[in-house]
Design a protein that fits this description.
The chain is mainly α and 66 residues long. The protein has one domain. Helix content is 67%, strand content 0%. It contains three helices and no strands. Helix 1 packs antiparallel against helix 3.
């Protein structure tokens, strides 16, 4: 029996990654005069939001199982 198998994957760098790459390129080319904290801000802001969401989810799960 002949089976047609289709494999599909999606993924990529995403908006935050593109924004970070853009900011780094602009900084290295001298187009912006921001500190590296602001150039890398898309990464740490996203990480902070994710950690906050995990914390809230953990607190809710802990409250429900209590």
């Amino acid at each position: 029996m002949n089976k047609n198998v289709s494999v599909s994957s999606s993924g990529g760098i995403g908006f935050t990654g593109l924004l970070t790459v853009l900011f780094i390129a602009l900084k290295l080319l001298g187009k912006i005069d921001w500190s590296w904290w602001w150039v890398l801000s898309p990464l740490w802001i996203t990480a902070t939001i994710a950690l906050f969401a995990l914390l809230i989810g953990g607190l809710i799960a802990w409250r429900v199982t209590r």
